[in-house]
């Protein structure tokens, strides 16, 4: 516990000295104000309605100023960023990995840690969905044992030197997992919990059951030579996880359409998840099977309780045996496609996204406050609901920034709403990084101008000055990569990210 507390204290001190005094505006206040400003109007929604386009409102938001297309160190235009910012790219799909093999396809969730010799260690997921045994642009074993010989997902670890703006070490850190979507930083920042967003198994001709979290060490040589699923944390379409540093309780999101739950895991030992624990699903008190997806009131307090999952590792061969079904049978609440989640030190709470929740279907952001006594259940609030695509379209990974802001990664994969952008001519389904300013308004911080891939894995260097984010890619060389974004000489400032 000491390590993670000291790390967070360092981040806050760095933010104050590098960017001015940290303002008191919390993520909660920003979201509440934004929600009031962005009340639903006649904006086009996913059901085809037409109305006034809100792109102008976003562009007039102060944010960090006007965005412009910028080239990376290779001369390739990947991102549009505010004037004065810069970035480099590395870890491109298909490029050579320093310790053998190539950088795999499908860059997704990512965590940052203190690396050796002053580097930032990035542990990056690869959400590979190829058929059993298909190794094309998969994570290469490079001498590591595979959890499943027929699965080719996993993680790649990169030690990045922010001063020289380049990688100094790159290697495979876990392999043989499947559809590694997101995850989260483990208790004490001991490593990365990488999560499988699938429940595939031998019925789909894989060699092992999938649908689990796995632990990847951030210390030592960083390689997982004994890949074991954390079965007690549940077998379901895992998206992301975060940990309450005070208690070691982990919170997990499920991405399974309208049958998605919000879970917590009470570990027997916070520093050794393999020792097991108890899996529970959130339920709203006095409202069994509460449906959060539509017709929710912003800011309304929902008092919650937790129901225990009897069998966290079902074989799924019988109807009604899934983790979600077990929770629903006990009254658990229903969400739509839960994705990114992040612990907020400022609020002592966790924020998480519903990608397509809300009346317009463009996404929700929820906050869960556990309170001082976890046995009492806690409180759930809807803090933000997007009224239209130009405000926020399909939030996926979420980051509570070192200065207490909110950063949202879009993953718009639908073609029905003609989601174009003036900075990315010729592309549809354009994806962005969306922030919230001090007045609560949304603003564009970055636009993917290279392709229509999602942006994912937003996280920060240990001094809180460099923002890392992934371009997911399209399964071909150079289409996916990691970006390191640097602020102007005067830093990030004190009121935004």
Features:
single chain, 497 residues, mainly beta, Neuraminidase, 9-stranded antiparallel beta sheet, 6-stranded antiparallel beta sheet, 4 helices, 26 strands, globular, disordered N terminus
What can you see in these coordinates?
This protein has 4 helices and 26 strands. With 497 residues, it is mainly beta. It has a single domain, classed as TolB, C-terminal domain (Neuraminidase, 6 Propeller), CATH 2.120.10. The strands form 5 sheets. The chain has a 9-stranded antiparallel beta sheet with strand order 11-12-13-14-15-19-18-17-16. Strands 1-2-23-22-21-20 form a 6-stranded antiparallel beta sheet. The chain is globular, with a radius of gyration of 21 Å. The relative contact order is 0.18. The model is unreliable at 1-25 and 32-61 (pLDDT under 50).
Give a brief description:
The chain is mainly beta. It has a single domain (about 1-485), classed as TolB, C-terminal domain (Neuraminidase).
């Amino acid at each position: 516990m000491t390590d993670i507390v000291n790390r967070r204290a360092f981040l806050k001190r760095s933010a104050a000295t590098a960017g001015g005094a940290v303002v008191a505006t919390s993520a909660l206040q920003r979201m509440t104000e934004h929600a009031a400003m962005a009340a639903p109007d006649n904006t086009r929604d996913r059901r085809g309605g037409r109305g006034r386009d809100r792109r102008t409102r976003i562009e007039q938001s102060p944010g960090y100023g006007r965005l412009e297309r910028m080239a990376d160190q290779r001369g390739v235009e990947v991102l549009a960023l505010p004037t004065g910012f810069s970035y480099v790219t590395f870890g491109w799909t298909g490029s050579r990995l320093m310790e053998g093999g190539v950088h795999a396809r499908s860059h997704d969730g990512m965590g940052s840690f203190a690396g050796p010799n002053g580097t930032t260690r990035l542990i990056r997921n690869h959400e590979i969905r190829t058929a059993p045994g298909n190794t094309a642009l998969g994570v290469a074993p490079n001498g590591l044992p595979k959890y499943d010989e027929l699965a080719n997902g996993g993680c790649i670890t990169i030690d990045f030197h922010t001063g020289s703006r380049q990688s100094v070490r790159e290697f495979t850190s876990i392999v043989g997992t499947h559809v590694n979507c997101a995850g989260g930083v483990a208790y004490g920042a001991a490593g990365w919990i990488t999560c499988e967003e699938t429940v595939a198994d031998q019925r789909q001709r894989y060699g092992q059951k999938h649908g689990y979290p796995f632990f990847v060490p951030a210390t030592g040589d960083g390689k997982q030579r004994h890949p074991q699923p954390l079965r007690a944390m549940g077998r379901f379409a895992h998206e992301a996880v975060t940990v309450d540093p005070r208690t070691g309780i982990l919170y997990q999101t499920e991405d399974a359409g309208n049958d998605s739950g919000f879970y917590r895991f009470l570990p027997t030992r916070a520093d050794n998840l393999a020792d097991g624990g108890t899996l529970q699903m959130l339920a709203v008190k006095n409202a069994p099977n509460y449906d959060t997806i539509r017709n929710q009131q912003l800011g309304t307090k929902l008092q919650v309780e937790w129901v225990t999952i009897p069998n966290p590792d079902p074989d799924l061969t019988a109807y009604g045996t899934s983790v979600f079904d077990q929770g629903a049978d006990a009254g658990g609440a229903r969400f739509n496609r839960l994705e990114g989640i992040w612990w907020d030190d400022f609020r002592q709470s966790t924020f998480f996204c519903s990608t397509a929740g809300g009346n317009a279907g463009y996404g929700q952001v929820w906050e869960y406050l556990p309170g001082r006594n976890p046995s009492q259940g806690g409180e759930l609030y809807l803090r933000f609901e997007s009224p239209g695509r130009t405000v926020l379209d399909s939030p996926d990974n979420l980051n509570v920034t070192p200065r207490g802001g909110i950063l949202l990664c879009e993953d718009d994969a639908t073609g029905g709403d003609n989601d174009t952008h003036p900075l990315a001519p010729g592309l549809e389904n354009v994806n962005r990084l969306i922030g919230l300013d001090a007045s609560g308004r949304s603003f564009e911080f970055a636009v993917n101008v290279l392709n229509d891939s999602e942006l994912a894995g937003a996280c920060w260097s240990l001094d809180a000055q460099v923002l890392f984010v992934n371009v997911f890619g399209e399964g071909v060389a150079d289409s996916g990569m990691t970006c390191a974004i640097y602020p102007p000489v005067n830093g990030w400032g004190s009121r935004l990210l």
